[in-house]
Records
---
Amino acid sequence: MNTSLPRAVHPAAWWGWAIGMAVAVSMTTNPLLLLLALAVVALVVAARRGSSPWARAFRLYLWLGLAIIIIRVVLHVLVGLKFGEIVLVRLPEVTLPSWAAGIQLGGTVYLEGLLAAALQGLRLAVMIACIGAANALANPKRLLRTMPSALHEIGSAVVVLVSVAPQLAESVQRVRRARQLRGDARRGLRSVPAIALPVLEDTLERSLLLASAMDSRGYGRAGAVSRGHRLLTGTATLGGLLACAVGIYGVLDATTPALMGTPMLLGGLALSAVGLWLGGRHVPRSTYRPDPWLTAEWLTIACGVVAAAVFVVTSRVSPSSLSMPLTPLAVPALPIPAVLGLLVGALPAYLTPEPPRPAPRVPRRGSAQLVGSRG
Amino acid sequence: MDEHAISLSRVSVTLPGATRPVLRDVDLTIEEGELALVVGLTGSGKSTLLGAICGRVPHFTGGTLAGHVRLHGRDTRDHRPRDLADLVGVVGQDPLAGFVTDTVEEELAYGMEQLGLPAATMRKRVEETLDLLGIAELRDAALRELSGGQQQRVAIGSVLTAHPRVIVLDEPTSALDPTGAEEVLATITRLVHDLAVTVVVAEHRVERVLHYADTVVHVSPDGSVRSGTPAELMVTSDIASPVVELGRYAGWSPLPLSVRDARRAAVTLRSRLTSTLATPSPDRPTGHSRDVALAARDVVVRHPGDVLAVAKVSLDLFAGEVTALMGRNGCGKSSLLWAVQGSGELTSGTVQASTTAPAAMVDPRTLDAAARRALVGLVPQSAADLLYLDTVGAECDQADRESHAAPGTCARLLARFAPGIPATRHPRDLSEGQKLALVLAVQLTADPPVLLLDEPTRGLDPSAKAVLSGALRDLAARGRAVVVATHDVEFVAECADRVVVMAAGQVVADGPTADVVVSSPAFAPQVSKVTGPGPWLTVAHVRAALDGGMP
């Protein structure tokens, strides 16, 4: 269907698509639609994820989703407000004092209430799966690289932070092993000073080395910026942020004048953008092999937007078709437009180019191939 | 104004908190396209000199710098290291510590991104550099998965892409095995010859670089700096390669710098040596007793991720013998030592260590950590991991307590290995050699019959190495079994009775040092290459053979 060469799709496109899917999912408790959305997300992930470690993390998000459903159901049974007619189990109910009215400890569990809780859990689980899909499909480091150049130093710091965490775990392990050589087999809290001190010193030393290496390689190199320009950049950024804050307040508080709401917010955002652009203009920095934004990216975003838009429209036109009929309990409807919207969301699995496959690498250490132990 | 690549005029550096300058009144010029080798004992200000050249001193380290350091006319006074990034590239000891990104290609591009080079230029330079360093097939590889030599080559590549005119390398091969070191050194000489880059490199093991160098810069412990041609400077330098020492002993002039030069000058020396062969060979008498101190049988160590680190190794360690364990990085040396000590992983196989009880052998794995330590001591690769208290004295007292030794045992041992360390000093402030001496003292307080050392020679200067070698010989003379895992062939020639070579988790050679080492060009010490095929491995051996002294 598509003949383009393998390449990584722009991470922002995947995030746009995933947010669109999540918005669509957030509007429904219809189990048929929720399961269809989950299938769509899983399909796209299976078809277009790369080979990086985070690409394999999608499964973790699914487990997290399952845990959320279970917790939601257990909470419903324990403290939820039970309703419905079809009795499942009769549990003893604890009567709470009047100030805790509304919280029902235990009590009879009805099928309707249980289903409602499970479906709310499912909705959240599918939304989390959407976010997980974005994480699996889009390399977070590449996403950081697309930040405006005025913010790139923060991006670098985050990247370093991400790579420091496994190093820290490694040195904890090393020091713990070394402690045994001094005949120290203390465990638990008492071993903390003996392990923490060498690890912290190690980490500090490593950070200093890294900082000096980055410095020598030109990190934080700034072009000559005039005083006036700096002042302008600062004013625009700060003013923009202030306007945003006031704007958000205005949007949320209905009593404020209309001008303080949306117009203020938009103005603030624009001003912030100008500030970032001004700040970035004098950063002499470029990006190696920037991810291109081509048709596939537009299509990916469009698919997400279509899915979200269809659900928004459906929720206005026939809201009942998006929810699970509980009183009385019935088979959920299958609104055709919503189904088509979700199927459009599945299109990126076919419309985008395939991710690049890295060449297989031989393990560096050990002699696995020599003794033939590779199963 | 001046077109010297590097010029230092009347430079003195005083580091923060120090009372006397590390470098004083340094006048030094290095011309474009030169390979300058910086030598000096540990703590002599070698690193400070390199830091001053790339601007890290004093911009990053603090302290005061008097005088002027200019790189192609740019004064480090007015330019921070980041402003010099297009002119000077810096490569450190541990390549992994300086990596910012996580794949080879991105790392190569990082410096160029900071300089704001156009995307097309970056693309081209990354490809050129990948080819220049011979790492094109590694372009997508994760940096942490590469071998040490590959990592160091990527680190060199990552500064090369910015097309600097000066490259400063601070002991680039100290963490590498001989093969990895050769790869890196070949790369460095290629840069000098093909690209006319000025290279300043500090290196403890001068024998590796000396014959490539155009200039030698010698930093004395008092902070003065002399520079000159290698042959000139090596006559008096306190750091010299074995070939140079042999040349000094034999009175050759000019001094030979490479094995080739020495071999050509050594015709008469060889014939004199061969004539002594009728007398008993200078081989060290092996331990008086051949008591097995530790017996390992069919040791297999498997690490997570299906890595077989040690594949069925059987090894006997004898009392009174120093055994050198050699082999390339990642061949299973460390895993074997840890498994034998009993604290590390052991997938299958048995280890039996002899105890003081007559004819009793015990598996160290079955003992608790303290008892195990009294039986088999291990000094790990990052020795400083064992230290966690805030003074040297406190560490010594703790060592006495944990090994139930008489108070002062550890301090006495320390005074023997490294005299004059104040007990109030913080362990982190010690030099590499002093740190190793402290850890060695801590581990020997328990007086184990078997002592294992993992890469103890890393970062040691020749004098510290001589002290270590003496200490290990002394232990062997007192009937202890010692194992040293190391890459340093000259150190092995000095101190080991027996050499075990490992490859891919298996033992490929095991025998007396002279036999194993002489038969392999990769492991032969320089003196052996010059005087071969005889059994002389060090200058001391040659001296003993000719003058009749003890080696």
---
Amino acid sequence: MTLIKFLLTALAGIALGFMITTRVLDRRLSFDTAQAGPWRGQPKSGTMDIDPYANARIARTAELPLGSAEGLSFIARNDSAGAPLRPDCDYIVSGGVPPTRYWTLTLISPKGFLIDNKAKRFGFTSAEVVRAADGTFTIVVARTARSGNWLPVGDARAYALMLRLYDTLLDFGTTKVGADALPKITRGGCA
Amino acid sequence: MTVRFYSFLLYLAGVLFVAGLVHIVAILVMPQVATRDAYARLAALAKPGETTLLPRALPGHQVTPYEDPAFAQAVCLYDLTDGPLHVHADLPDNRLVTISFRTRTGQVFYSMTDRASLHGTIDVRIMTQPQLDAIEAAEGDEDNDQPLKELRLVAPDAKGFVLVDAMSTYPSERAGAEAEVKSVACAPETLAQD
């Protein structure tokens, strides 16, 4: 009887351990987290100093994080108010970006894949974006076509935004980054 | 009642202990046991020791997640067992080109952009520590005054891959970016044995 109890305890522990591992990796948790407003990055994932959780994740998902000299990447799953991004709402991504040679903003599925849309636009590069006279920009993330910089959502039921800064002077190791260093994501109208 | 309660707590502690152990071990061995990691996916598309252009990132046709659709990407898988790998790039355009050197399990041990080029060229030799020692011993002291024209990188493991990225800032530059990453030469060398 005691042996069975011991075995059950071990089995329950193993199952729970695998469950926790899957959950942690799916949620991209790690000790190495940089945050600026809704944007989250893992600046050490492009070095040999990579966090063990990020290391396990890249083995599992096969993603190729940017090398530290290549640039930094950030993912936003929420808007600047903290609410999850909803596919039936419009969002305005606006503001400035730290000194960087190029940046790109891409719309991805929660697992990091591109989402098909009729306009065949999957993101913007800093060169493509139409800017205001003061150099700031506004990108509208919406399901239906908008004038100006429109990033289509397609038929996605959930999505995230990915911001990549290439050849950037921003260094999360030495600088504290405020919420307004990266673009704001403001919710507009909802269908 | 209290005895039963404490014995339940004990079993619960046992479950949590085993779960924690399994979690830590699973995280640590994941890079070694993952079968569908980046290297495995790239190895299905590319031959070792040569530059292979990866298919453009489009919905439903992505080799790896979190690819930037604005980039053309090429890969060179290497195995340094028989000798170093020489990576040579001519970058005449002012296009953003980044090169990352990764281990078999996908960690970046060195990365650079076209800004690190010397008169528009990049020359990198990846080698193991014994190979570097052999090259330095062969060179002796004779040309110590000459600045090195190449970057010598010691790779953590014999196996790994080099990823070359070029940005097409506008869709019209896609063909140019693809041609540029494809033109990066990646040549395995055999060390002269004496």
---
Amino acid sequence: MAATLRACLVALLVAAAPCFAAGPEANRYSAAVATEWFRVVLPAIQQTPGQSPPVAARTLAYLGLGLHEAIVAGIPQERSLAGQLVELESLPPAQPDDTLHWPTVANATLAALTAMLLPNAPADWKARFETLERSMPVLQPQDFDPAQRTPEVIVRSETHGRLLAMALMTWARTDGGHDVLGARRQRLDANYVAPSGPGAWVPTPPRFARPLLPHWGANRPFLATLERCRIPGPPRYDEQPGSAFHREAAEVLRVGTRPSEEERRIALYWADDPGKTPTPAGHWNWILTDLLRERRADLASAARQYAQLGIAMSDAFVATWKIKFELNLLRPVTYIQLTLDANWVPPTMETPPFPEYPSGHSVQSGAAAEVLERFYGRDTAFEDRFHNDRGWGPQRFTSFAAAAQQAAVSRLYAGIHFRSAIEHGSTLGRCIGAQALALQTR
Amino acid sequence: MRRLAVAGLASALAGSLAAAPALPHFVDETDAAGLQSRFDGDWEYMVGGGVAALDCDGSGLPSLFIAGGANRSKFYRNRSARGGALRLVAERSGLELTSTLGAYPVDLDGDGQLDLVVLRVGETVLMRGLGDCRFERANERWAFQGGNEWTTAFSAAWLDGDARPTLAFGTYIDRGRQEFPWGSCTDNVLVRPARGTDGALRFEPPQPLRPGFCALGMLFSDWNRSGRPALRITNDREYYKGGQEQLWRIAADAEPRLYGPADGWRPLQVWGMGIASTPLDDSPYPAYFLTSMADNKLQALAGDATKPAYQDIAFARGVTAHRPYAGGDVHPSTAWHAQFADVNNDGRPDLFVVKGNIGQMPDFAMLDPSNLLLGTPEGRFVEAGDAAGLRNYQRGRGGLLVDLNGDGLLDAIIVNRWDRARLWRNVGAGTAQAPAPMGHWLAVQLRQGGGNRHAVGAWLEVEAQGRVQQIEQVVGGGHASGTLGTLHVGLGDAAKARLRVRWPGNRWGSDEGVGPWFEVDADRMVIVDREKGLVPWPQP
């Protein structure tokens, strides 16, 4: 250590260049501090008001990004994502003279971000957050060696972690997705008037709810390259039998009316409804968390994977919502009642309250599969335990692509999406995942 | 003379202990001097809290204007005895205004009387100096549109030889969008002098400097010594969307233009609160200290002055000041006003940083002592605030180092939010009962004819001890706090010095606009008049 410090000082005197007289690097620790936090945050998202699927994806993205940026200085040759993401030029660097304990930094960052991203979490969950932060050294003694954690190192590490979280949140608050339950946002959404006309989306039975987050597509994305991901539109709107549009509706009617037992199971398995589950982004983060635990990943790898998965899935929602509300395409139930069966409603599940094209689940799963394939390989089989508590799991998949494909087509089985929304949505998701992976972390 | 024990790692590495800077002593004279000001208020007063120092009665001693926030601002006439205890007398001067955040003295109309630009929550007010420390509102007289913004920063320059000033104002959050302030920064504005007004000062309507990123500090400064100052703005990342620090190229006859990556400008995002500048290491080009939350930045040119590419040298110089150095609070600091000045008269700039929690932010230090960082011969700075007796653990905001009693030692003022402003007398190497000088010094006032009476934009060069110090005459910077009148120069052991002025518009390397050298005895105030040369300060 003394030699390191001396070399550091020489470098500073000669070149005024920062260097680190640090303790062990972040990749010398396990991913446990990260996976423990995600295991708590995911069910908390389920029970926190306002954490609809797009919002939950955003929450998880900032947690993953925050984790990465908190410890980036502790990962050899790792590059910060600041400077690569839209309107995020920089984040506070770790002080060169601070020896930091990276699990402590990560713990502080994730605790601070969780509190700021879920400010309206139920009180019992807030108590769990605080307990988790305090008890992490006890829960993970292998990573929280008291010999490395002198009182001063703890203070410095927690300080850096919280400062990073604060800086990240100052950026997050301006992305357009913050404060979804605030009066300003509620006013904005309440004043939204959906365009009308042939093929236009209208509220759907049985609730005829107002559209969910109609301005979400205007949010600032993480990825500067998101616009590169484009897909063809749906078939031209046509009510004539035999038209491409009509044929897709007829397929929904046929499949959605009488799904097989397996198709119905798949539809429900991937529904990932808010309030009942941690939403689609939570589902894929759950899968990642299990993989990190099974493979005994290190903290640096976990940070990288949570960040890129989170960014891909959050931007997938932004891109999806942009297209949804620009095209404003009606849902199958509306079309089918108009042209095929005036009394039809999807028997498996309710149609979500927003325009149809493209399928959000398809974009989400496509993006997630693209990211996870990069980290774990295309042909990696895995076990999905997301629904174990409901008695629906574990579910084994032969690959991430197989899981993503099943998640996408589940929306056809459910009778709530046309096929082109699913296929094009998957393509869009793949593209967004690739853009997230194009971020330079090394 | 006591010297500060420097735990200088760099020096230790070199195998010898460097000469430690001499330690000045500050004595709290807030009560004794009669200073009774508070900066209060909630949301709209979380920033600001400035002080202005100006000689408005020809005494040679600066009087004080102190912003009050929700309280009325106050004016204190300086009745200190030369070399004696500080004494301030609150007087009605016309400056008793509501909703004030800070102020900067500047002679806007070139009549020889300093005026005061008062930043407010609401209309900005230009107060015209009438003499004998009386002021009157002059917005209408000068056709100045003061707006209705949350105005938090100011700087002024005389551009391209113009006889009248160009004013820049920084604004903060849209007052109509306080329910969701993030991403709600308002435009900064540039106010140019009107043409064709037969010499009478009139201003044009404000011109937006867009985008605005919640400015908390502004400074016209000649970063490349081109003879034309550029406008540096430090912005608060807490509230902007897609913002960064800014440098505007502003000329009298051209549209303002932001420096960008193509010009070499490197993006930087900080919780920008204040700006201080000084050349370092005998460089002719100023370095800029930017206050922030946690670590502060010291930006120096990364290469030559052909492009504004800056690198951060704060850590190397020991001025990150990112956490309290005393008091036991372990959280990150929040820094506001900053000022380079020589408090121990050793001929090297020291750095004064006023700190304080925004309000009740639990993740930031509540006990956040302001810094007094003394410059060392090696170019680093070492903390001396506590040892020097300059202890302020309140929520500091604005502040100033200024010689209030004419003894050649810079005294200190800090304006605190939700608390009293405080005042310290610098007694040098002595005590309150027996002040003692530290090094030699000069107090230099610049004068020239025309509208720019104080030669704003000029550079004073003082040669002593084999070194040439360079000080830029500016209006702006700090945090909502400023002074204009005399430039203080520490001379160390030199009982004599040579000085000259590079008058506004001089380009580095050119002799045009460079005045002659004058020899001068130390420990006095002098005037350098562009036409008359060296003029003794009139005795009061």
---
Amino acid sequence: MRNPIPGNRLRPALWGWAAISVLLLGAMAAVQGFGSTASERTFVVFLVNVMLVISLQVFIGNSGIVSFGHVAFMGIGAYTTALLTIPPILRTSQLPELPTMLRTTELGVVPAILVSALVALIVAAIFGGGLIRMSESTMAMATLALLVVVHTFLQNATTFTRGSLGLAGIPVRTKVEIGTVAAILFVLLGRLYKESGPGLRLRATREDSLSAAALGTNVVRARYGSWLLSAAMMGAAGSLWAQSVIAFNANQFYFAITFALLAMLVIGGRTSVSGAVAGAAIITFLTDSLARVEQGVRIGPITLPRISGTVQFAIALLIIVTLILRPEGLFDRWEIDDLLRRFVPKRIRRAPDAEVELLTAPVPEAAPDDRRPPVLAGDDIAKNFEGIQALAGVAIDVRPGEILGLIGPNGSGKTTLLNVISGVSHPTRGRIVLDGHEIAGLTAHRIAGLGLSRTFQNIRLFAQLTVRENVEAAAPPGVGESGVDAVLASLGLMDLQREKAVNLPYGMQRRLEIARAVVRRPSLILLDEPAAGMNEMESDGLLENIRRIRSELGCSLVVVDHDLRLIMKLCDRIQVLDQGRTIGKGSPRQIAEDPVVIEAYLGGPSTKTA
Amino acid sequence: MTPSEFVQQLVNALSLGSIYALLALGLSMVYGVMGMLNFAYGELVTITGYAMLAATYLGAPFVVVALVGILAAGVASVLMELIAFRPLRNASFVSLLFTSFAVAQLIQGAFRQAVSVRARGVPVPDLLGNAIQIGSVRISVLSIITAAIGAVSLAALTLFLRRSRAGLSMRAASQDFTTARLMGVRANGVISLAFLISGLLAGIAGVLWMARTTSVNPTTGFVPVIEAFIASVIGGLGNLRGAVFGGFFLGALEVFLQATLPGSLLPYTQAAALLVVVGILYVRPQGLFGQKVEAI
Amino acid sequence: MTDRSVTDPLLAVDGLTVGYGSVLALRDVSLEVAAGEIVAALGPNGAGKTTLLRTLAGALKPRSGSVRFDGSSIVGMGPESVVRRGIALIPEGRHVFPKLTVQENLTIGGITRSDREELRADAQRWLERFPILGERSGQLAGTLSGGEQQQLAIARALMSRPRMLLLDEPSLGLGPIFVDRIFELVVELRDAGTTILLVEQNVHRALAIADRAYVLSVGSVVASGPTESLVEGELERSYLGIGQPG
């Protein structure tokens, strides 16, 4: 069975997890050896905070969308556990109207956790389906509504919750040992999810949801998956929390704790699991120390008066300071294993000596094939935006193995045509067939799944992901580690594979864009201004790369560019657009000599004598 | 429902809706110009309440008390932008949201410390507690005044936006900030103005809210602001007309639910209204007047 | 490069370098525009022409280099200040305020001026000069056609009575008749005293009205001089890549 997480991501994740686990176990030993009951209590609070914040981060950190509502799942988990673990006598005395089935069931610690996670999951599934389709700011508001709705329910469904009086008598099972083990498991789960295929693709949508969709990721489904997982984890964490506090009421699951958890993420690191743990430590420590200050404390000869609200105040200040000075949080986007790597000598990975073949299958004909049906056939494609007719009825056909150039002056509709074909935008009318499938009006990710890839004019890389991760995020299920290696090697990106995409020089960024498109093994690749900003030498290199891609993958390409020298040398046929219509189509020579084309580019016949 | 009850509820809806509309408008205005959701907006209502409290202790007549409240909110809003948001002017949407969340907590904490955790009563003229009788219909004076003040405020704001140069600058900036700057519209000026106006709107809404609830505590601003957020989202974020519509819609929805829900479910009025709105957003994620974003 | 008279140029750009992230859009660009000239900046897409105008207008900050307008430096100033110095930009793609009326768009163009009466008179003048705008003065600008929006964008920029106008691809996406009108207008404006720096892809048209031109490629100036000296065949070749070996 194929390894679900490739080695290059799995290894650092496991190392990072091991490092954190060692730290947690060490802390546990220290607390048990030297600590008082009070510090044991604080340590358990810390461990539960770790579990809560990691559950929250599974969603917020990976999707980039803020959810204010996750504490609702914590509450659901806590109440479920309370209802199923409080000794029956105590239970029925607090909740006399409880249905019979719930009166006597008593669950052990693990079953309670699992059932709580399940209930939270169900609620999340019901609400999430709608939420996840909204835009990011709307969704943030909708999760706020979710928090209020669940809180209102927990406060008023007194038959089950005893409202503001709350429930008491929950057996304390989350002790130091169990808590530490649980926290370690949560860290493992959080880290593994982040590095998994679904987690990586979700992170890609966080970086650039449009290009992620155009490279095959179903954005809604990716978000929904992490929504469900984080809700279940939150429910489980809520259960563990309930089994540490003995008693609680509905007011616990509202803004105070939401604020504290968000603070942990902001201060520690929104996207880093190690950061989340650090954030939990900082906030727990701060809350604990300041709680003592709030009681009034003696510092040497000075006795401070009782000050209420210092905790909130301090946390709020710390958030603001962090956002100004270190906007991504203490750990920024680094995991603890990234930092450790600085101290470990680099194992130099030997790059393959020769250019690696992209496919081991026999290489199909390099020349365009007229006999087989076209890879792409579009007819009468039109697109209107707010009164402007960007495309006024364009026909296009691309033969198997062909490189078609698409040129035209600025504003002629070239990029619009690419957008309509790739599903980034929907045509006002027209028919487009890709490899026998009707694709006009389909979503971008579905079209990508049918065999189309593209690059973008203004580079849309997954900026904070590494070069390798960029390619892996685009890779379809059939392509494994070696497939990714091959693509990286053939485009000269192997040495840079651990660099973040945003740090690459411009030419490399363009190559990475192409690598992402190539790894999908498409039948048609759309390249939008791949030579923009390149000098002659660079664009010659690009030309070689494109030719090689065509022959090794056996695919077709449509290339839009303004570098007409490149287009003339590279393309088998050229189509010229002007003002949303096709004004020329033919071989490079034909196009270069076509007076209509020349006029469109340079403007009307010359009025100045040479 | 009898016709007279209906009229009463209608006036109620207009009155509650006015308050939500004013708040939703303030939120949308800042979003339109700066692209940020200000989580600390509700605190301006709290500030209004406490300012009114202070003015009352100083013996001022109610009209002055109300004006003090409104001005306090306006000033606080401008200060909030200057101190907390300007340093982060180009930060991401999420960073600004978190910052505003933190600012909200700071202000709440400050009031908790400086005044008290418990609610304090804000005296309100007896006149507002009365009701007038028209035929078989009893309508509370407060509802009428609230609706009237809401209407006047909205009209004044519309006039300002449509007729004044500053208003024109704001409208231009919310449509295309960069081009507005190229015309010479000062970025800082227009943002401060947006915060000032939205602060004054919060102040007016705050005074009306105090008149309804007659008490203030550190978390007072919280309830109406959640409504305001949801209302501005129904209308389509950044869309001012949509915000007003959203506010009235939500107010009417709540009043309607209050009147029709059975007694046992009454505590769920707000929750039910929110669920209805989330349902609407499910069908139309861009809000009722928002623009649908293509792709994905 | 050019024989200039004794007076200093109105706009003097020296060693301008502008970048976005890891990309250098302009590398060490220098150019001059004398008062009363029409200067064209030509070059294929991606050459940096729009970046140049946006930097001059203050919408982008350069990494290095100097920009002097009428003798004083304007480098690093925000767009609000640059327009108050007398330079107005008509951006690529027009960027009219879609939900403001034609009249309101004009008013915004003059927002930096305090002489209300004159402002009203100017607006009236432009509405008469462009009858289509006059007809639609109460209409929302977003409902106008491309050519009408372009006229509005130009009139709007002129409301601030700029000494210098930066025009970014005014003929973009417009039909030939409108293009004629726009270029006629540009000459008219120059004759009335406004200095013009024009970025255009439509080489023939631009050279027909410009006094001098600079040719940009991949962020650098590769040729410049009076329009007569720029040989057409060479330009065509660099644009269309014809006649090149391979």
